[in-house]
Amino acid sequence: MIAAQANQPALPSDVASTIGEDERVLFAVRPGFLFIIASSWKSLAVLVAVGVVLIAVPGLQWRWGPLLSALVAVARLAWAGVVWWNIRAVLTDRRACVGAGVFQRAVTSLPLDRVQHVAMSRLLVERLMGLGTVGIASAGTGGHEVVWPMLNAPRAVLAMVREATSTLPSHKGERTWRT
Fold first, then answer.
1. Distance between CA 79 and CA 77 in Å, rounded?
2. What is the distance between the alpha carbons of residues 20 and 154, in angstroms, rounded to a whole number?
């Protein structure tokens, strides 16, 4: 099994099994910790609204409503934490891969010599929290094969992927990246 660098989380066995023994792991990260809030904000907003309505509207003053809303909000945040814990974005000197899933794990791997497109997207909530999603695609697909959601420092990650692909022998002199 390939070990990640010292300051990076250890790789799950399903992700490590896609990486060759002679590959060098450039980074292995989880999404930013604020993923937990960013992926839950809509649910939390609804739960706060329900709690306020249950307190404020005459005739609906159900005293357990706010407590129930708070418990559901905590459960939603806990679930988002479990999802966060189970996502791993990995870049080696030969491939980009992502492993994700709680009940059903999926690992997607894309050799760097097949990368045709690298993109970053940042929803408003991601921008407010300093996060961004990086997608990596090869030719002939309708989307990004590898998606790393809500990463800290997404521009730095984007630059790292571009650097890794531009140093490959098959890509030298062929790529011009625009930011």
1. 5
2. 26
pLDDT tens-digit series, residues 3-51: 444 455 578 888 888 888 889 999 999 999 999 999 999 999 998 888 7
- Residue 160: name the closest of 140, 177, 143, 144 by CA: 177
Cβ-defined contacts of 4-13 (< 8 Å, 24+): 4/28, 4/90, 9/88, 11/88, 11/90, 12/86, 12/88, 12/99, 12/105
Alpha-carbon span 28 to 23, nearest angstrom: 13
**To the nearest 10°, the Cα dihedral for 80, 86, 87, 93?**
160
Both tokens of residue 85? 């814990």
**13-31+89-166 domain in CATH 2.30.29.30?**
yes
59: region left, alpha or beta (phi > 0 left; psi from -120 to 50 alpha): left
> Which regions of 73-121 does DSSP assign to beta strands (E)?
88-92, 95-100, 106-111, 115-121
**Are 112 and 168 a contacting pair, CB within 8 Å?**
yes
pTM recorded for the entire structure: 0.81
